[in-house]
Amino acid sequence: MESLPLDTAEKIILRWDSTASEDARDKMIFSGDRDEADLYLQAVDEIQRSLSSVSVSEKVNSAIQIAMARLEDEFRNILISHTNPFDPTTEDEASQTLDPPSSSSSPKHPDNDENDEVSQTSLLRFNSDGAASSVTGSYRSTSSIREIDLIPCDAVYDLRCIAERMVSSGYLRECIQVYGSVRKSSVDASFRKLGIEKLSIGDVQRLQWEQLENKIRRWIRAAKVCVRTLFASEKKLCEQIFDGVGTSIDDACFMETVKGPAIQLFNFAEAISISRRSPEKLFKILDLHDALTELMPDIDVVFDSKSSESIRVQAAEILSRLGEAARGILSEFENAVLKEPSRVPVPGGTIHPLTRYVMNYISLISDYKVTLNELIVSKPSTGSRYSGDPGIPDLDLTEFEEKTPLDVHLIWIIVILQFNLDGKSKHYKDASLAHLFVMNNVHYIVQKVRGSPELREMIGDDYLKKLTGKFRQAATSYQRATWVRVLYCLRDEGLHVSGGFSSGVSRNALRERFKAFNAMFEEVHRTQAVWLIPDSQLREELRISISEKLIPAYRSFLGRFRGHIESGRHPENYIKYTVEDLEDAVLDFFEGIAVSQHLRRRSE
């Protein structure tokens, strides 16, 4: 293309001087005829060339200032009018569809027995084509980054043409300011659509944890879209427009656009990482840790320049603090389990709320074992021999040399839970109920371990056998405490007087023996029907064990001595129950339901 005469170039520049012409103010050059835009750029080029000559007139200097002001307006207008609407909902749906499963789910609070279905936020797995074929960007996508075209390629071409001329004329600062102002407004609008609020670290720390849980879930989804799509696409756009125009101009424009929003984004995670620690926060903190761990390679790519180093450092420091917070919470949880102070016995010797909470909690911990095995690198310091505190149980760590530190921490939590439960059992006045309480709770621990393949693998079969032995021993201790004295009534000793066997039974002693048995059994029946064994299989097994001892003994005693009672007066006052009555009565045990003071009798 032939160059324009200088005076022609000056006329073109002046014709589009918006300060001197209303027509020029109402129209935008790059929104109209393409030839007109090309002609204006050609005129600017000619003015710039004339500036390099020795004698530059004041008229030429004025023309270049008018041209730069006009190009700045055109640059701003193109940025505003050609920005493609960013739909974060579409990007989030794409991420959820294409993301590979993460190492952990989003579990419910450990008060619940049921776990949430796995809720994953997906990686974005697309590569991007350059928006303008005439521009070659240095940025290359990673497999998880999905760039989109924020501005159409023809508009990108116009922006680059304008930027080249503004920079070469010394208007770099103005160009960066206009670009950053417009694009940052666009990023802010995208943040609002993603639900990212402008919250300071103090604002976040003042929120209730229930509010924060929802915000964390939203933040994880939003952060993936921001880093992998929004920020990556902004970087690509900067490179398409500014790469090669000047030294690091593309990076300067990128940081002008996204530094504030990026700090705003990561400030939320930072606030969580330094917030007050408590057990219920562990799993959301681990979710944040997992999400940020997944994002770190993308953060390193998107913020790869020297000027964006502060963003990379902030993200890495947050990741480190989240790991430290997780370790601290686990340690504080162990201490809280050991010292949980409730002294009021749970009614009926059923499962203590602490047992449910702790076992559900460590079941959820096992869901995060991949992450926690990386974070937990030391085994707990256990027992009084380490602390000098006799209020801490002992655990021989040499038994678990093949276990990971996390595995040993879970075993230790179960050990201190049992230690606490043993203490709580002493608050029961009835020794039988204390043993039943221990049996119920240790059995629940065993069932939770058996019910989770991950937890069972971490705890190990050897320790599981010890737990099983403990609840079985508690069941045996319960039976001894309850039934030895009842069955003692059915012994032969003390019933015979000197003389022949048939004539040597003391009817009075026999009557007293039956009365004692009836009274004891009725009391046990009345009391222990209200006791509760929640697990139906365990309840049935204990009933069978009771019946196997009680029923044969009663049947034998009744068979040997029934005649002595029935031959006397009012035998019904002594032989009140048949064998079948007792069999029926045992079925009332451990239902947690009050029964009539008198046993049901089939003969009634």
Q: Low-confidence parts lasting 5 or more residues at pLDDT below 50?
A: 97-109, 114-141, 384-388
Beta strand count: 0
- Which structural class do the helices and strands define? mainly alpha
Helix share bin: 55-70%
Query: Which architecture of the largest domain does the CATH hierarchy give at level 2?
Result: Up-down Bundle
Strand content: under 5%
CATH topology group of the largest domain = Monooxygenase
How many helices in DSSP terms? 22
Number of individual domains: 3
Structure report:
The protein has 604 residues and is mostly helical. The chain has helices at 6-15, 22-26, 34-51, 58-81, 88-98, 153-168, 172-194, 201-206, 209-242, 249-273, 282-302, 309-339, 353-367, 369-375, 384-387, 405-425, 431-451, 453-459, 461-488, 507-528, 536-566, 579-586. The protein folds into three domains: 6-84 and 146-327, Exocyst complex component Exo70 (Monooxygenase, Up-down Bundle); 340-480, no CATH class; 490-588, Monooxygenase (Up-down Bundle). It contains 22 helices and no strands. The longest helix has 34 residues, at 209-242. It is rod-shaped. 38% of the residues are buried. Mean pLDDT is 85; it is low at 97-109, 114-141 and 384-388.
